[in-house]
Amino acid sequence: MRMKDLKPLIEKNRSYRRFDFGRKISEDFLVALVDAARMSQSAANLQPLSYITVSKEEMVTEVHKHMRWAGYLPDWNGPVNVERPVAYIVVLGNTEVKQTYREVDAGLAMQNMCICAAAEGIGSCMIGNLDKNMLVKLLEIPEQYEIIYAVAFGFPVEQVQIVPFAGDVKYYRNENQEHFVPKRLLKDILIKRG
Ligand SMILES: Cc1cc2nc3c(=O)[nH]c(=O)nc-3n(C[C@H](O)[C@H](O)[C@H](O)COP(=O)(O)O)c2cc1C
């Protein structure tokens, strides 16, 4: 694969928050995503992360209650029932393994999963704003593990598009509920070259 093939995938790999709840994702696919996470770079190769897959509809429904969506869209309270994610992967820190740069490791692992999902037409959203205490109880997570993030998955029913940054980082939607994500321009972030 060449960069010209990969870059469109990176562009497509946006945060999606509205999905087709009728279109499920197999448990095997989620396990394959965790396998992709397993192969991520890791500081000192410590690999402090563990995972829980959630694909059974009843449990997805329960887990979903503890996610907070799109802080920049104050008039939107998260996806309506038929637009909920159909699966979650919860990213955990295993406290029995030394934790160095754990946040970076988690980011890399989630990125691998999201990119792989995007390659199959599946949208995702990393969720850092979640009720960890409730999820620990609900998922009966053993004491040695701490929840770091969750990633929501599903087939998107929304358009998400990058637009040039014009003074505000807040994402927004137009009247057709299309979602726009401002990204800073290359010329503004590449401060020195050569
Ligand atoms: C570490 C991290 C945590 C995030 N947490 C949330 C969250 O709790 N809820 C949410 O709706 N989006 C969350 N997002 C998605 C961001 O809002 C999104 O990445 C950002 O708006 C840029 O959009 P893009 O992913 O399409 O480029 C998170 C993203 C990252 C990287």
Briefly, what is this?
The protein is α+β, with helices and mostly antiparallel strands. It folds into 2 domains: 3-158, NADH Oxidase (3-Layer(aba) Sandwich); 159-194, putative fmn-dependent nitroreductase like domains (putative fmn-dependent nitroreductase like fold, Single Sheet), CATH 2.20.180. It has helices at residues 3-12, 27-38, 57-64, 102-119, 132-138, 186-189, and strands at residues 49-54, 87-94, 123-127, 145-154, 160-164, 172-173, 179-183.
Describe the structure.
The protein is α+β, with helices and mostly antiparallel strands and 194 residues long. The relative contact order is 0.21. Helix 2 (27-38) crosses helix 4 (102-119). The strands form two sheets. It has a four-stranded antiparallel sheet with strand order 1-2-4-3, sandwiched between helices. Strands 5-7-6 form a three-stranded mixed sheet, with no helix packed on it. The protein starts with a helix and ends in a 5-residue tail after the last helix. 30% of the residues lie in helices and 21% in strands. It has six helices and seven strands; from the N terminus they run H-H-E-H-E-H-E-H-E-E-E-E-H. The protein folds into two domains: 3-158, NADH Oxidase, CATH 3.40.109; 159-194, putative fmn-dependent nitroreductase like domains (putative fmn-dependent nitroreductase like fold, Single Sheet), CATH 2.20.180. Bound molecules: flavin mononucleotide. The site of flavin mononucleotide has 14 residues, from strand 3.
